[in-house]
Structures are given as structure tokens and as C-alpha cells.
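Hi team,

Filling in the usual template for the complex we talked about on Friday. All components are listed, including any nucleic acid strands or ligand strings, so the model treats them as one assembly.

SUBMITTER: L.P.
PURPOSE: interface mapping
COMPONENTS: two
RESIDUES: 898
SEQUENCES:
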Amino acid sequence: MKVVKFGGSSLASGAQFQKVIEIINADPDRRVVVVSAPGKRNDADTKVTDLLIKYAKHPDRKTIVEEIWARYQEIADFFQVPAELLQPLKSELENLPQQNYSNSDFLLAAFKAHGEKINAQLLTIILQEQNKPAEFFDPEKSGLIVTNNPHDAHVLPQTYDRLADFQNPNKILVVPGFYGRSEDGEIATFSRGGSDITGAIMAKGLHADLYENFTDVDAVFAVNPQLVKNPIPIKLMTYRELRELSYTGFSVFHDEALIPTIEAQIPINVKNTNHPDLPGTLVVPEKDFKPQHTITGVASSKHFSALYLHRYMLNKEVGFTLKLLEIFYKYNISYEHMPSGIDDLTVIFDQNQFNGDLREQMCEEIRATLGPDRLEWIDDYAIIMVVGEGMRNKIGVLKRIVDPLAQANIGIHMINQGASRISIMLGTKQADASTAVKKIYQQFFESKE
Amino acid sequence: MKVVKFGGSSLASGAQFQKVIEIINADPDRRVVVVSAPGKRNDADTKVTDLLIKYAKHPDRKTIVEEIWARYQEIADFFQVPAELLQPLKSELENLPQQNYSNSDFLLAAFKAHGEKINAQLLTIILQEQNKPAEFFDPEKSGLIVTNNPHDAHVLPQTYDRLADFQNPNKILVVPGFYGRSEDGEIATFSRGGSDITGAIMAKGLHADLYENFTDVDAVFAVNPQLVKNPIPIKLMTYRELRELSYTGFSVFHDEALIPTIEAQIPINVKNTNHPDLPGTLVVPEKDFKPQHTITGVASSKHFSALYLHRYMLNKEVGFTLKLLEIFYKYNISYEHMPSGIDDLTVIFDQNQFNGDLREQMCEEIRATLGPDRLEWIDDYAIIMVVGEGMRNKIGVLKRIVDPLAQANIGIHMINQGASRISIMLGTKQADASTAVKKIYQQFFESKE
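RESULT (copied from the run log):
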């Protein structure tokens, strides 16, 4: 049995719905279908989720409701769905402001979730009209139970007990992604892009053999196609590799969605709704993987800052780093990496955590508590990740990475290898990051090994 | 004014004493002389400090006292020192067991310190006999005040107030190294090799222009002479470089001795008592340094172990490393480095901290508290340090380091650059470490840049 998830662009219009239905029909194993809310039809378009957020803030503005409903109506018209079947969905949308919510956050969560909920109901109707045994799966009634965080909920273990009832469905279950029922009985959503998570939970809970994740790209590529023209698609990769690449912006698959699939060791197939014939990218457990290239992919991310600390005999003090981490903890700052020298420490942060005086306050406390000889803040920091199970224990990989960078006159501020055996992390100036990624890609994929 | 410190081998015999006296006489600026206890005269010899440790444990064994005194007598005979001048020193040695000590640790500290104390008094007598204006500087009376740790004391700030009285000495002060008076009035020693520390304290306290550290090697070398024949001597280096190289076994100068010299920004000249005409190695503040080579030195050390931890989403947990460090703190374990991946962490430890069940207990607690997906302990770990102010911001250094290692088929487990801008740290198997050091040395010092 396969769980199939379709992203927002795959369900943005009637024409896209048609492709989705053909994909479902093409394989009788596709018996659980997880849907997102309708996404953008073109660059100028607005996602239904964003319209719903507006609606939540201005529940009296009729034009917004009309704009939202028009999206669903367009799809329904494409399939000539009778008006009386649509009326309940339209009413549900219109009546959203009249429901009870414990606070404005749960109100917003419920509004957002209806992008998926209405879309799933609409797909169910269309399939049923075509005489398919489709059934709407209601996360609230069927027990997809999540924590009480309205916008960043996490699945709770009892969900999996409940899902056991749905194993081996002889129908096509159509599941709205992105949300569940909180412990207190209200709608709570996962973080943005969370339909991937719903798919993963369904795959685990129903013991799927495969989790197919349909999106609008042919595959995960070895490098960002905006940097390199026609990069090679990754045919096979491991969970770990996907995770490491996701870190620097390979955003094809939601981070948190990996966990349930890893726990259940279910392979993920990332495919393109618009080219379902292509093999896409298969993400598998480590044991099922044989590397085809030395590296699997390379990516960069530019939103980092670094804090440099120097103090003589720093590494003789058992408590130095501990005190430092306690300060980060107090300011609720998480750090990314912390390469250390003998008397030095560099701490790399996600830049987006700092606003206003927070950074200066934190640095001041570090100065007062730890008395470093030197404290420096560096804002121009990019991280490059070179990822590949194939480089494990392979000698000379590092040489092949740093050679082209030296030739391109790119300075390496930081290099961190040793923790993950399947990745090497480099720090460069932000202006050098894209060139560095290109050079590394060319070295491993365009030159002879 | 110069502070001159002589190591144990420089004062191991009458003949060596003669060289020391010639060095003192050669420069009227050498007005503070710090002495160690007599060291080994040959490989089979025993250091006086080690004999004193035996004496402290068996205070009734006359043969040990005789063996110790014989060392001083040999030196005195070389200079034909009259017996009546020696009698007080001999009595002081013989009467050591009769003094009061608050406990056996302070007893041992006092016994050990007398290796230096008697040697300094003996040198004073010899200089005076040669009509030099020498005077014994008594750390107990003159106020070299240290903490109450009998064997690992640290200098206290009031020492420097006291030392101000001794500025611009018009005599030659002969200072026994290695010990001071504890706050409670007893003798307490620095850690082993601590005469370097006394020299540094005197240099700072008396505002010396230069701290000359005489030992038995011509210079600090760019690589261990046991690995490479006739390596190039380092003529000029910075405090930081010395510190980084000391970390991996460049043991010419005591780690802690650097602090007072850095605080007072006094250059250190490491010289050879046996070839005082050679320039030796000058260690200077960063501002006085112009790099002559890209790297200054390379060294390795093999006594490391690594702990590898893997857990999905590890870097999303603000408190993960904090909890880990709290466990280390509880077990009083200090870590050396902690390179991190996205979902992994490697922690590198000094192997010598672990004995018996400690390691297993600690790992068990880490398992129970942090629940990693994987925990691995790796015992075969060597660290290589490549050090040089000259590689700061220089592009291509990393390439030149990893190139020869790849050619020699050496796997790099870990690489850590970024904290200290003047060093790159590599992890290899212990069996590969010496070859790696040799190859890196050859790359930077024997091939054309």
C-alpha cells in the first residue's frame, strides 16, 4: 500500500487536479491520498492558505471569502461537480467566523487548516462522481491527535494506535494535510509546509510500503538548478543525506516529516505531478543504499553569523563552554556549530534569531561572565554542505573539495568534518558561497574522478 | 634587564654550572637568574627532584640523602667551594624530616622544592666566591605568594606588589624556581616543570625587557626532530603559536608560564645553554611578528579518544549540548573539541582522563539522559596541529595540507578550522599521525611554495 501526498502546486487548478486523479488511478496501491491546499497557479497568484490568513484577520470582508471560494469553484467547474454537492463546503468556509475558538491563535489555525480540509473534501467528491471508492478522512474525528500548539503542533503517540483501525483500506482515503486535533479538541496545524508531515504520519500509522511525495520538481537535484543549468537528478539517497541537504535549503521535503518515515523505515519517493513517468528521487534507509557518486549533493545557505571568542587557557576550564551555553539558553538562542581551537571558540548562529538589542545584550553578558580576551561578531557568514554517504572513509575527498576553491581564490573561514561522516561543512564569505557550490559541483559531477 | 632561567640539564653538573656562569657573566643585563634542580647528566641518571620524592617517602633512609647530597657536592667540588660554606645547605637537606608540615602533601611539596632551593643557594655561593654581587632570593621571605594547592599552586596577585620592591636590582638575584609560599605559610610547588613559571612571574613582577629561557635544545623546531632529520629551527614566533604547538607536545616551555609573559608583553628567548651563541627562538607578541613562512610548525599528539553521537533533529534542541556538558561536568571530564554536524556530534577527549568504569558509566548516563540513536566510542584518535600566523586569511593553505595526505593515502577523520585563525586541526588514526606530520612538514618547508 502506498501513501501519496500532493503539494499545493499539484492541486492549484482543475487541470492539475486532473493530473492528480490520473496518478491515483494509475496504481491501485495508491490508497491513501494526502492533499495540500491549492497553491499558486502562476507567479502572480496567491496561495489559498495565505488568503485564509487574511480571512482570519478580516472575517467580515466578503470579498476575501469570494476570492477563496472562486479557487475551489474553478476546480469544481473543471469536473462539472453539481452545485448541491458543493454547498456544504461553501457553507463550511462561510461559517468559519461563527465557530467557537479558545483564542485568536486557534482561530487562525482553524482558518488555515480549512485550505486543506475543503480541498480534500472536494477531491473526495470528484473521485466519487467518477465512481471511485473515495472517502474523506477527517483528522478531527479519526484521531490525528497533536499537541496544544496552535501553529507548531507535534503528533502524539496515541495517533498511531488510532490509525491502526485504518490499515489496509479497501477504499481510497482522502486526507487533508497540515493539521490534527489538539488534546483539548481544537484544530492545530503543523508548521508551514506541514502536509508532508501528515503524509509521513499516515505512512507510518498505516504501515505503507512507500510514501510518494508529489511536488512540482522532477527530482531532488545534486545542486540548486538556479546555480547550475540542468544539474543531475539524485536517483537514490538516504534519509540522512536528505536531512543534511535540507539544512542548507534543499526544501523539497519538510524536515520533521522525515522522523515518522525513518521510525517506520518507509522509503520516500519524491516525484513530479507534471511528469509522473520520471523516476524522481527515492529516499531510503542507509541499509538499502549503494552510493553511485562520491558525493550526493552540495548546497549553501547564507543566513549565518559567527561569534569568535579568544581566551588563553580556555580549554583548561571545564566549565567555560557550559557557562556559555547557559547564556545562550537564557536568551533562548540555539547555535548551529561550535568549532574550537586551543584558546578559541567560534559559535555559528542562524542570523534570524537576532533582532534589536538581543545580540548586544547577549555579547555583553558573555563579556561580563567569561571575560574573553577577545570577542568578535562576524555577520558575513555562509555555510556550504557537501553531502554523500559515498565519501565515508573515502580518502582524498577533502582534497577534491578544497582544490577548486583554492583555484577560484575562495577563502575558507571554517571547515568542519568529523561529526557527521557523510558531510563536510565549510564556511565562506556570503559573496563566495554560490561560486564555491558551483566549483564543488563541477569537480564531482563534471570532471573525471 | 633580563630574567634568565636555566633548566635542570643546564645545572646537572659542575661543568654545566660553568656554562651557566659564563652566560650570566656575558651580559650585565642578566640580573635575575632562576634555577631548576639538577637534572639528568645522562640517560641513566636520576633527576634530583625524583630523588627528593623518594626521600619524602622514606625519610629515614640515609642512603637517599647521601645520593642527593652527592649531586650538589660534585658541583661544589668542581668550583672548590669551601666545606664550611656548604654545611648549612647540607644541614637544611638532612633536617627536612624534622620540620613541621600540615599534612603529607605539604611535606612532599617542601621536599621537592628543596631541589631548586639548595641549587639556587649553591649557585649564589659559587658566584659570590667569584666576587660577583649575587644574592639568594628566598621565595618564602620575599613574598612569592601562591594558592594553597601543595602540588599545583597558582601565583596570587599580591606577589606582584611585593616584587615591585626588587625592581632594577643592582645585584644578581638567584631565584629557586618551581615554588612559592602558600597563603597559609607553607611551601607549595607549581606543577612539574614549574621553574618556567617562576621565571615568567619574576619577569613580569620586575618588568624585565626579556625573559631568556635556557634549556638543552638549540631552538623550537618546526617539527619534532625525531620525525624529521635536521628540521628548520623557528627563529621568530608568537605567543599564540607557541601555545597552539605546545598543545600537541612541543614541550619546550611550560604552558602556564606563558600567561605572565603575555600579560606583561615580555618577549621570551628560548636558548641552548650548550650553544649560547645560537639565536634560539624568540617568542613575541602578535604585533611584533612578521611571518617568514606560511606555517610555523606542525605537531601531533596521540592520546585522544572520541565519542560519536547521532540523533535526528539534534541541532533543533536548544538544550542538547548543554545537558551533555552537564554530564561531563558531573564526571569532571573536560573535552578538547566538539565538531558538530546537523544531527551528529563528535566529542574529542584526552584519553588519560578515563580509567576503569568511568567511561562506561558516563556513556550510560548519556544514553539514559539524551537517548541518542547511536553512540560510539573511538579509541584510535590522533590530533595533528598545523600552526602559523602566516596562514591567516591566506587562500589555498588547506589544499596544501590535504594534498600530500591524500597522496599518502591517509584518511582524515576530522578537520577543524575556524576557531583559531592561526591553526588547522586534523584527526587521523594514530598509526597515520607521524607520516601525516612528516608530509605536511615537507610540503611547506621542503617544496617550493
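MY TAKE: Chain B touches chain A through 65 residues (CB under 8 Å). Chain B has 14 helices and 17 strands.

Thanks, L.
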